[in-house]
Specification:
Blueprint: H1 6-10, H2 12-21, E1 45-49, H3 53-64, H4 69-81, E2 103-109, E3 114-121, H5 127-137, E4 142-144, H6 145-154, H7 165-177, E5 211-216, E6 222-228, E7 249-252, E8 256-262, H8 264-270, H9 272-282, H10 286-299, E9 317-323, E10 328-334, E11 338-343, E12 346-352, E13 354-357
Parallel strand pairs: 3-4, 10-13
Antiparallel strand pairs: 1-5, 1-11, 2-3, 2-6, 5-6, 7-8, 8-9, 9-10, 11-12
Length: 358
């Protein structure tokens, strides 16, 4: 297993380089470092967002069988992409405002520093696997829309209807209640015909959820992926942070990997995952790096409509980070969020994210 030059993480030279790369954005280091589970872990590891327990176990199994970390995490998140009950990713994901499911994903391979991504891809269940094909088979990084779908079909991915009945009914409820000025009757105004059940009643689900998964193997090589159906009922063509390299996902094989879930616009505007990796390069633990990015997002959220009565962001972002030596961590803007980890101590489990705001 490759070892890490301790000076890279703790030395003055690394700190100076990190500050230069982040434009001097690093906050002052705490005088007394708070310990977090994952700080002391070393060796192979897989981390994911809270919906990624099964993804972690699958990626771990594949790495133990010799798979590359990038391929392993893509196979792991494929379980969630195919799960119709997860309405934030892949099949069953909530659609855009026209009722069309549009998916985004990215993958990065540490040893080659090569990335692949797709955005606004329709009718393809596994966008992360398509992004991996962009990485391995092309000189490009990002394919979008019809071009991304055509590429996927050329590589044997089947074209499928991704809008489940559950997601379609959720979209119809949203559509009917979106505006009192349109010609749709709200759920409580609809005419119920004798012998027929009114079809669009109930709560309207909403998500900007995603799944991120990052892994490091016994040689210290990294891979990561982020895949999503994006913001519920979004404007068609909207692209979040998930397929943006350095925003929703980033890997530097000399340092570590990071990923994000939550409000994508906030992560894009702060280059969240790139910044987290750079903070680790300065010497922060993975959890400290995630918290530093989230505090930066908090401080740069200027719009009044995005802050609550206590002047906190009224949205959430979670960050996940994995260091080359196997240390890991997760943090969230607003508390109550878990992340998933599979490490050398046993099967995948949930851990509580550190929080900027309780």
């Amino acid at each position: 297993m490759n070892t890490i030059d301790r000076r890279r993480f703790l030395g003055v030279g690394a700190v100076g380089a990190g500050v230069a790369l982040t434009g001097g954005l690093a906050p002052a280091r705490p005088a007394r470092r708070e310990a977090h589970e994952g700080d002391g872990h070393r060796g192979p590891c897989v981390i994911s967002s809270g919906n990624g327990v099964r993804a972690c176990d699958r990626a771990w199994e594949r790495m133990q069988a010799g798979a590359d970390p990038a391929a392993a995490v893509v196979e792991g998140v494929g379980i969630v992409e195919a799960d119709e009950n997860d309405m934030s990713v892949g099949y069953g994901g909530l659609p855009n405002e026209l009722g069309v499911v549009q998916l985004d994903a990215s993958v990065m391979h540490g040893p080659s520093h090569k990335a692949g991504a797709v955005a606004c891809i329709e009718n393809i269940k596994h966008p992360a696997a398509v992004a991996l094909k962009v990485l391995t088979d092309t000189d490009h990084v990002l394919l979008v829309g019809e071009g991304a779908k055509r590429f996927a079909i050329q590589h044997g991915f089947p074209e499928e209807n991704l809008l489940t009945e559950k997601a379609r009914n959720a979209w119809l409820r949203w559509k009917r209640n979106a505006s009192p000025e349109d010609d749709w009757l709200d759920s409580d105004q609809g005419i119920e015909l004798k012998g027929q059940q009114q079809g669009a009643a109930g709560e309207i689900p909403f998500t900007y959820g995603t799944i991120h998964c990052g892994a490091v193997d016994g040689d210290g090589d990294l891979g990561a992926t982020t895949t999503t159906s994006g913001l519920s009922y979004k404007i068609p063509g909207r692209v979040g942070d998930s397929p943006i390299i350095g925003a929703g996902m980033y890997v530097d094989n000399e340092v570590g990997s990071a990923g994000a879930t939550g409000r994508g616009e906030a992560v894009i505007q702060s280059c969240g995952s790139f910044m987290a990796v750079r903070f680790m390069e300065q010497g922060m633990t993975p959890t400290e790096a995630c918290l530093a990015v989230l505090r930066h997002i908090d401080s740069r959220t200027k719009r009044k409509d995005l802050r609550d009565a206590q002047n906190r962001p009224n949205f959430n972002v979670a960050m996940y980070a994995l260091r080359k030596d196997g240390a890991y961590g997760g943090a969230v803007l607003r508390g109550g969020v878990n992340f998933s980890v599979r490490d050398t101590t046993g099967p995948a489990r949930h851990l509580k994210c550190a929080a900027v705001h309780a």
